[in-house]
Amino acid sequence: MQRDFSTFIGVDLGGGKGKNTAVARLERDGQGVRVEFVGVRDPSGRPFYDGPLIDYVMGYPEGLVAMDAPLSPSVCVRCRREGCASLETCPDPTVRWFRDTGDRLVNGKPRRSGKPPTTAYTQRACEVILHKRYGILPRETLGQGMGPLTARAHYLRRAVGDRFELNRNLIEVYPKATIHALFGARSARRYKRETRTWQVRAGILESLSDRLRFSVWREGTLKNDHCFDAVIAALTGYLWAEQRWQMPEEHREVFEEDGWIWFPPMEPLESREDGT
User: Fold this and answer.
1) Nearest to 225 by CA among 260, 262, 194, 268
2) What is the pLDDT of residues 237-269, one digit of tens each?
3) Contact call for residues 110 and 101 (beta carbons, < 8 A)
4) Residues near 7 by beta carbon (within 8 Å), at least 6 away in sequence
5) Contact, 227 vs 39, CB < 8 A?
6) Which residues pair with residue 65 across a beta bridge?
7) CATH numbers and ranges of domains, the chain
8) Whether 65 contacts 237, CB under 8 Å
9) Could you tell me if 11 and 65 are in contact, meaning their C-beta atoms sit under 8 angstroms apart?
10) Four-CA torsion 244, 247, 250, 255, nearest 10 degrees
C-alpha cells in the first residue's frame, strides 16, 4: 500500500448542527510536518457543517484524512441477514469474536448467563481491544450520545467515497489514544478539562517540536479542545503513513471487517513489567 502523502488532514468531528468540528491541515516540510491551517471555520469563515467540511476535504484529493469518529458500523447495524440468529448463536465472525475473545477480555472467561460483558450492536472489536488490552477507554460506536456523531461520520465517509477509501487514504483515529501511546496515561487524562490543561498541551507540543511545527498561531491550538485534537489527529495520520503501521495479525480479518482505530504502537498491558 502506497502511503507517500504530503498533506495530512485531521478532523475532530462534532455534531452536524453544531460548531464544534475542527480541521487541521499539515504539510510535509522536509523534517516532519508543519501546521498550515487549523480552525473551527473554513478559510472563508464558514463553520464546518457538512457542506464546508466536504468541500475542504475534497480540495485535497491526494492527501490523507484522519478522522476522530467511528467510520465503520457495528456488526449488527451492518447485518443484512434475514432474521436474527441472536448474539448467542449468530455465525458472523465478528459476533463469534465478541462471544469468545471479547467476553474473555472483559470478564476473563467466555460468556455466561447474566449481564453481558459486551454488546456487539453498540461496540466494535477494536474498542474492546483498545480498552482491555491497552488501557485506553474509547467512546463506543453507538454508546450514550454517540449515535448522531456516528451517523454523521458514516454519511461523510460515503460523501467523500469517490476519492477517499477507508484504510487507504481515510483512517479512523482517537487523539486520546495517540497521546496515551506517546506520552502516557497521565497526559491522556490531563490534556483536556483539567486545571493545568494549557501547560500539559504545551508540553506535548514542545515534545513533538522535532517533527511538528506551526505556520499558524500555536496558542490558538492550545486554548481550543477541538483544534488541539484536530492537530493530533492529523499528526496521527502522518505517523501512520511515515511508520507504516499495520493492523494486528491476530484477529486481523475481524478488524478489517469491523473497523480499526489507529494509534501509535505500544505494549499491551499484559506485556508491561509495571502493569500500567
Assistant:
1) 194
2) 999 999 999 999 999 999 999 999 999 999 998
3) no
4) 25, 26, 27, 28, 60, 62, 63, 64
5) yes
6) 9, 170
7) 7-72+143-243 (3.30.420.10), 75-142 (no CATH)
8) yes
9) yes
10) -170
Is 239:232 a contact under the CB 8 Å cutoff? no
Q: Angle at CA 93, nearest 5°, toward 91 and 97?
A: 110
CA distance 228 to 250: 33
Tell me the sheet residues that pair with 170: 65, 166
* Cα–Cα distance for residue pair 39/221, rounded to 1 Å: 8
Query: Which three three-digit cell numbers place residue 138?
Result: 474509547
The C-alpha angle 259, 261, 266, rounded to 5 degrees, equals 130
User: With the CA atoms of 157, 158, 163 and 168 taken in that order, what torsion angle do they form, in degrees rounded to the nearest 10?
Assistant: 50
User: pLDDT per residue over 174-229, tens digit each?
Assistant: 999 999 999 999 999 999 877 789 999 999 999 999 999 999 999 999 999 999 99
Q: What is the 3-state secondary structure (H, E, C) of the chain?
A: CCCCCCEEEEEECCCCCCCCCEEEEEEECCCCEEEEEEECECCCCCECCHHHHHHHHHCCCCCEEEEECCCCCCHHHHCCCCCCCCCCCCCCHHHHHHHHHHHHHHHCCCCCCCCCCCCCCCCCHHHHHHHHHHCCCCCCCCCCCCHHHHHHHHHHHHHCCCCCCECCCEEEECHHHHHHHHHCHHHHHHCCCCCCHHHHHHHHHHHCCCCEEECCCHHHHHCCHHHHHHHHHHHHHHHHHHHCCCCCCCCHHHHHHHCCCECCCCCCHHHCCCCC
The letter for the amino acid at 66 is A
Backbone phi, psi, residue 53, to 5°: -65, -45
